[in-house]
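Appendix B. One record, verbatim.
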Amino acid sequence: MGVELIVWTNNACSKSRTAEQLLTEQGIAFTTRRYLEDPPSRAELEDVLRKLGTDDPRAIARPGVTGDDVLDQLSRDPSLIERPIAIRGDRAVVARPPEKVLEI
């Protein structure tokens, strides 16, 4: 069995729902993390950035989030996190467009 795929999603987001549907249609097992109800810590956000291959927190922030404390903003208000984010092992992708979820 491979490494678990975790998808951070917001059920109200059509991109999140589409990414989940694509994975389901492809028969790819995944675990959903509703990050609005279970917000990631700053350390988890830093880990996702590392897995994305960047140290720029704007890579996972919705448009308009600025300033030096972007990670603190994201950990306090997870609605500012770009979605969906798929994480598997030491890799992650921001699935925009949703088809990018299949890259992981």
